[in-house]
Automatic annotation (TrEMBL):
Similarity comment: family membership: Belongs to the carotenoid oxygenase family.
Protein name: BCMO1
Gene source species: Mytilus coruscus
UniProt keyword list: Iron, Metal-binding, Oxidoreductase, Signal
GO biological process: carotene catabolic process; retinal metabolic process
Length: 518
């Protein structure tokens, strides 16, 4: 090689180096990825366990605008569905496609964002005459969670995607075909003057049953007629049954809730729908009002009778209910709590795409809290968990998951995502294992410039330890600017295997592993 050539190579290398240091990798999680394909083989570094058979299905936003308009908030991006198949013979594949929702289809046709309710505003904003229609059309982009419900009559599973809405979309998970929208008949009856669209993206299984529970928030449009809350049993993707309904002074916004063998528990922060503002701004964030000095209300609903007990407690914004169980006449309920709902501003695209804004944003991470509800006295005590000097962020996580075999009962381990590990920069991410039994099993895993999301726990068959299992999460490798699927040992939080993916996976919200689905 001549001296000049060596110099040229060095110059190119250093330009490349400066370029890759300057380019913020985290923002790739919030950049459109329009790739669509089925069953591309992927390869793990090490052989996979023979028992691992099934599909990890996840969803999240993957396209952040259409034609002449953009979303401003990450949660509004058009939903995509991802499927990682483990064939049980050592082979794996990866598939992805957009959810072909009405908003996806219509937006594509009109080269603009269609008129549906969004989480935050769009840019440029919708013209005034299109806003009320957007609110009445409700949420359509079900990009938050995937679930399957067992249909006893058909003796088969039905797969759905959800957001915090009554409406869901059914899809076929192996081909990732959108089957269609399901707007189940409202089991509380048809009443005029209510908007019955707000529900939960996190149904919870009923104990000893193939059914699930959800709630419905019915916002009254008629002055002096009260809004209502209902607890509802999901018997299949199509069939709903009323468990309880009651009046509330103001209609709260909730994302998730808890279930024990005998109770469904809702935590309603003082965060209420303001229908006038909702119609004016056509987005959930500006249509909801936070009352910092008011109390929150816990509703304890007896599943058998539909009786509702009401308990007041200190305010705070619950993000995700983790698990709940009964202990004598107490309910123990663990929830990831934010100080207030303004935390969600951190997910504005402008902030997420700028390291400076991520660093300067006013953002206090969520904290895991335990609510002990004393049913005899109908009061509640709130407690926090002991800190850990090795992992100072150990109690400040969200996106919790557990070993599902321990749902509804006493359990010890929560796996979650800490988003401000260095206490400076939102996006300095760590995966945590929180021991809520206080037996010194806290643990965590993090790699600089690697960005994992919400995990899913898969138990090792026939194991007896709660943490005998693996965790799966897609990770963005910021150095390589590529995504991989990471496998962790849930016992130690040590990374044990990974497979780089043929396409970069933007931020995904939630997902589940469905065993035997391939
Ligand atoms: C939408 O966002 C993209 C990517 O940030 C940008 O290039 C485009 O100009 C934006 N369009 C509008 C209408 O704001
Ligand atoms: C595993 O099964 C899948 C689906 O039947 C097949 O495509 C793949 O080739 C098999 N792999 C091996 C190693 O046999
Ligand atoms: C959207 O269009 C696709 C065809 O491109 C169709 O299969 C799908 O059912 C449509 N979705 C809705 C909700 O109508
Ligand atoms: C749930 O089922 C288990 C075993 O099938 C049984 O022992 C238990 O009593 C049941 N619990 C309730 C609350 O029905
Ligand atoms: C609640 O009352 C029941 C009997 O009515 C009693 O067995 C139980 O110990 C009480 N629990 C608490 C937490 O006070
Ligand atoms: C709840 O009620 C029980 C029984 O009356 C009482 O012992 C306990 O102190 C109360 N706790 C709170 C936080 O008020
Ligand atoms: C788990 O136990 C069942 C029943 O005892 C047995 O059939 C199965 O092979 C076991 N699975 C594994 C992976 O050991
Ligand atoms: Fe969620």
């Amino acid at each position: 090689m001549t001296y000049d050539l060596v110099l040229a190579v060095l110059v190119i290398l250093s330009i490349h180096f400066v370029y890759s240091v300057q380019q913020d990798a985290y923002s790739l999680l919030f950049t459109d990825n329009k790739d669509v394909f089925l069953n591309k083989p992927i390869h793990f570094q090490y052989p996979l366990p023979k028992w691992l058979r099934g599909s990890l299905v996840r969803t999240g936003p993957a396209m952040f605008g259409m034609g002449k308009r953009n979303f401003t908030h990450a949660f509004d991006g058009f939903g995509k569905i991802y499927n990682w198949k483990f064939y049980g013979n050592g082979s794996t594949s990866f598939s992805q496609d957009f959810l072909r929702s009405e908003t996806y289809n219509v937006s594509g046709e009109i080269k603009d964002i269609a008129n549906f309710l969004t989480f935050e505003s769009v840019s440029p904003p919708f013209p005034l005459d299109r806003r009320e229609i957007s609110v009445l059309n409700g949420f359509d982009n079900t990009n938050v969670n995937v679930y399957r419900l067992f249909n006893q009559e058909k003796e088969s599973y039905e797969y759905i995607t959800l957001t915090d809405a009554w409406k869901v979309y059914q899809f076929e998970p192996t081909s990732i075909n959108t089957i269609g929208e399901i707007d189940p008949p409202n089991p509380r009856g048809t009443y005029i003057g209510f908007i019955d669209t707000m529900s939960s993206a996190h149904p919870v299984p009923e104990h000893n049953s193939s059914y699930h529970f959800t709630f419905l928030t019915s916002v009254s449009l008629i002055p002096k007629v009260k809004s209502r809350l209902s607890v509802i049993r999901m018997k299949s993707a199509f069939d709903r049954e009323l468990v309880a309904q009651w009046e509330v002074d103001k209609a709260p916004y909730m994302h998730s809730f808890s279930v024990t063998p005998r109770y469904v528990i809702l935590f309603a922060a003082a965060y209420y729908t303001n229908i006038g503002k909702m119609l004016k701004y056509a987005n959930a964030y500006e249509g909801l009002e936070w009352f910092p000095s008011e109390k929150a209300t816990i509703y304890v609903v007896e599943i058998k009778t539909g009786n509702v007990h009401t308990i007041q407690t200190e305010n705070g914004f619950p993000s995700h209910h983790v698990n709940a169980y009964e202990d004598n006449n107490k309910i123990i309920m663990d929830v990831t709590m934010f100080q207030d709902p303004a935390y969600s501003k951190i997910y504005e695209l402008e902030t997420l795409r700028s390291p400076t804004k991520r660093q300067n944003a006013q953002y206090t991470p969520s904290e895991i809290k335990r609510y002990s509800i004393n049913l005899n006295a109908t009061n509640v005590t709130v407690s926090t968990f002991s800190p850990n000097s090795i992992f100072p962020f150990i109690n400040n996580f969200d996106f919790p998951c557990i070993n599902e075999m321990y749902r509804h009962r006493k359990y010890c381990y929560i796996y979650g995502v800490a988003t401000k590990r260095n206490n400076k920069l939102f996006s300095s991410t760590a995966l945590v294992k929180k021991d809520v039994c206080g037996t010194n099993q806290d643990s965590a895993f993090a790699l600089d410039n690697h960005y994992p999301v919400d995990m899913w726990f898969i138990p090792i068959p026939n194991s007896t330890r709660e943490d005998d299992g693996i965790l799966l999460t897609p990770v963005l490798d910021g150095d390589k600017r590529q995504s991989y699927l990471l496998m962790l040992d849930a016992n130690t939080m040590a990374p044990i295997n990974r497979a780089y993916l043929p396409s970069l996976v933007p931020f995904t919200m939630h997902g589940r592993f469905f065993s035997d689905l391939i």
